[in-house]
Structures are given as C-alpha cells and as structure tokens.
C-alpha cells in the first residue's frame, strides 16, 4: 500500500488542490526521541467524510492536535483552506471553521449545557445571551439526536456520560458567526448506543452533502465502512493506506493496521457458550427480573445507553468486594497525579507490602508484567498516567482490575477508545480468566461484545426486561427488549 493519501478526484493537481480543504505534505512530529508522525501525506476534501483508523499510538491523536492548533509540526508543510502554514493555535483553528470533539470530553461539569455552549461562542453576549445559547444548543440536539431528553439548563455534572457526549457532539455543529467547515469526531460513538450512534452517522451524511467535511476517527470499523467516503489507515506514525471506503472490509482494514496480519476474532458460537456451576451473585435492579451470575460466567448487560446499567454496576461495587473497570476513565478511573504503575498496583497494593511497608521493587515488577500482558505503549511505567493515550489508559484500568484478587469483575462499557487488536486480546484474557473461575458483569453498547457473553440481561428504564440465554443472544432480541 502507498504511504500517501491521495484525493478521489482524477483531474489535474491544480483541480485537486482547489477541492482540498486540508493538505498535509511530509508532515513529521517528534517529541524528543519519539517520532509520533513520520512523513504523513494526507488530504481532506471539501464535503467528504474521511475515516481515520489505526491502533492506539498510531499517530491519530497527534494528527488531530496539529489540525486543532494544539501542536505544531516538526517538519513538512500544512495547508488549510488554501492558506499555507500550520494552524498556530486553537483560536486560529476555530476561525478557519475547524471544530473538534475530543475523545476525552471537555465540557465544564459545574456549568449548564447552555453555559458550555457560550464558551465556544463568545459572540453570545449581552442581555438575554443565556436564552439564545439555550436555543442554539437545543436546536442542534434536536437536529443531531431527535428525541433526546437533555435540558439546556441542566448542569453537565448531572448528565450521564452518554448525554455529555451527545451535548459535545451537538455543540460542534452549532453556528453563530463562523460555520463549521471541518468537524473532527474522535471516537464520537464510544458512549452512544446503537440508536443514537445511527442518528449521528445519519447527520454526518447530511452535513457532508451540504459541503462540510468530517474527519471520523474511530475504532468502530463498521461505522467508517458505512459512513466514510474514503478511509485512511495509520500505523506507527505513517499513513499506510488510503482508499475509497468500498475497497475495504473489516478484515482488510485490520490487516493494514496490524502490518498485514490479523488474528481472528475470539467470538464464540452459541454452542460454545457454557453456564457456570455455582451461583455467586443474585440482584434485582428496581424490580423486574433478577440478575443471576454463576462462577466463571461472562454476563452481558445490554439495552440502550442511559437505562440504568451503569447505576446498577455502581450499586453492586459499593456493596460488595469487587473490582470495576470504569468506562468514564477521566472521572471515575485514573488517578491523574499518579504514575502508570501506581494506577495499576493500587487495586492490589496489599500483595506488595513487606512488613507493613510498600515494596517498590515488587510494585515495579508487577507493573512491568502488566505492560507486557496488556501491550501498554509506554517507555517507562513510572511516567504519569496522563502521558498515555486514552486507549492505553483504559488498558491500565483493565490491568488494575485483573491484578486484584476480586472474584467478580464489573466492566462499565470499558472498551471506549481501545483499538480492534487490543479488544481481541482483552476478549481472550477475559475468557481465560473466566475459565479460571472469575465472573464478569459486562455492560457494553456494542452488539459484537454481547456475543462474547454467556448470557445477556437487557435493561430498560432501570429494569431488566429480558434475560437471554446462550442460544437467544441476537441483535433482534436485544433491540426488541430495549424498546
């Protein structure tokens, strides 16, 4: 595959340039000895949806930061909207019509939805600005996510993770003085259920038809295959392929990301699923059917996002000795001032005690072991946890839970921002741990992950509406119970 990403048009280079909203030529970016981008050639055309995929650490986040003005390239040339030169700061990016919804959401939790909208629209000022801000974001939410139940006057801290992601996405498409020309969506559906994700993808199709470009960065390969006009694949800081979406299927994309090799999915057929022997948990959320988990089972929690699955897991975690992998790692998962190794070992610090004191050598050895097992991309486990990409932070949270001695592991939509190959590795690790006697309760918004489970309980409005046995786990059954 070529390392450059060329536009679809076959006219002269002059015509290509006239239709290119963004053009990177031999872009490189280094952080000391680490080369994050290594000669990237890439174009984003006006009015197209360009899908960008690659493993964690492939360079996608660095590329986004160049576009938004958070970073400057070390070398190479960059052209945006026909103007040569890098985007020198976020304000300049916004003046060019570049908007970004980052994987780590940036809403201020102590402000209302309307007040958060005002932050990116300084023109909303003077008398009655709050009402205008509320009207602006409510109209955007109605357009992108029809049927939403989000109030503009609600404090962001009171919203679920799904609702916060919906607000941030809708805000990116709002217009006061400068209309969006390029909207960058970094893992935009990671906390959305299938219904709201479909609404967003439909909106992407509408805005690109009107001339706005969208850079869709996601590990959900079916989304780029269905929604993107072209798909660029990154690996080790380079673009290793860029083609019309119709050229690819899921396996070919995974093969490009992994250098030509692809380990088959570990998803099991219904006949391979088994039921554990001894019951280790029985709980009934808000009435309805009870949830029963046996030793060695992987129990899925399905249904539309925001229907009580997370609250159920939190209640269980508060009442029992269990380990939990948080989906909202920024708020509920990482200790931001601690190192990577400390974030992992805190779940099992007792085993590193010697005569009542923490044995640093034991802690460091354990962290190194988990770096290898989880393939955490870090030169030093003593580095701050926030030096990792979002996906690698999530790997550290998995390592913390699995390193503990808890017999039951709770997982709250834990695969947000995790690349395809790592997902396969984690699935295999979960199965191995279950075979050794651990029990997993796994809330996920991805149907493919429910197929990894032995049984699935479907939630609606805080209640269990259906309990699906090994031979009943199908998308149709889950959706029927969800609605």
UniProtKB/TrEMBL annotation:
Entry keyword ATP-binding: yes
Domain of life: Bacteria
UniProt-listed SMART domains: AAA (SM00382)
Occurrences of domain ABC transporter (ranges): 22-261, 261-481
Repeat is among the record's keywords: yes
Pfam families for this protein: ABC_tran (PF00005)
Species the sequence originates in: Lichenicoccus roseus
Bilayer-spanning residue ranges: none
Keyword annotations of the record: ATP-binding, Nucleotide-binding, Repeat, Sugar transport, Transport
GO molecular function per UniProt: ATP binding; ATP hydrolysis activity
Name of the protein in question: Sugar ABC transporter ATP-binding protein
